[in-house]
């Protein structure tokens, strides 16, 4: 059987395939890294809020008189303040991560376009 010389061989195709797939691979890795960081931040904040909420619920179970009611109310306000601050910090971190991800993705896209022009 004669070999078709017009058809490229696998060895000849691999470098061009790698050039084509490399930006996709890089973008996928960036997306996975970003997702993991984002989920880590979210889970940390959720864990903190859940623990604070449970502790607050326990303090309400201890209400026996006017003084303990006052203490539970003050504790509730402090807990809400702490959770609010935690959510603010979380949103700042997520914004920072998103900007970082966007910049890296734009860099990968630029590199892919530049290499395609070559």
Question: What do you see in this structure?
Answer:
This is Phasin family protein. It comes from Halomonas litopenaei. With 118 residues, the protein is mainly alpha-helical. It has a domain of 77 residues. Helix content is 88%, strand content 0%. The chain has 2 helices and no strands.
Instruction: Give me the secondary-structure category.
Output: mainly alpha
Strand content: under 5%
Order of helices and strands: HH
What gap, in angstroms, lies between the N and C termini?
37 Å
Largest sheet, described in full?
Answer: none
Please count the beta strands (DSSP E, at least 2 residues each): 0
Helix tally equals 2
Catalogue the unreliable spans.
Answer: none
Share of helical residues: over 70%
Q: Quick check: average pLDDT?
A: 89
Query: Measured on Cα atoms, how large is the radius of gyration?
Result: 27 Å
Q: What's the overall geometry?
A: rod-shaped
Keywords:
118 residues, rod-shaped, 88% helix, Phasin family protein, single chain, mainly alpha
Please provide a brief summary of the model.
Helix content is 88%, strand content 0%. It has 118 residues and is mainly α.
SSE diagram, text form:
Elements: H1 10-61, H2 66-117
């Amino acid at each position: 059987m004669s070999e078709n010389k017009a058809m490229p061989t696998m060895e000849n195709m691999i470098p061009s395939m790698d050039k084509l797939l490399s930006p996709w691979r890089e973008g996928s890795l960036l997306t996975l890294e970003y997702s993991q960081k984002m989920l880590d931040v979210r889970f940390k904040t959720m864990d903190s809020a859940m623990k604070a909420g449970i502790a607050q619920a326990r303090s309400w179970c201890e209400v026996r008189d006017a003084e303990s009611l006052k203490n539970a109310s003050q504790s509730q306000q402090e807990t809400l303040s702490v959770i609010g601050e935690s959510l603010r910090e979380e949103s700042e971190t997520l914004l920072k991560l998103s900007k970082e991800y966007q910049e890296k993705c734009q860099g990968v896209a630029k590199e892919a376009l530049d290499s395609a022009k070559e």
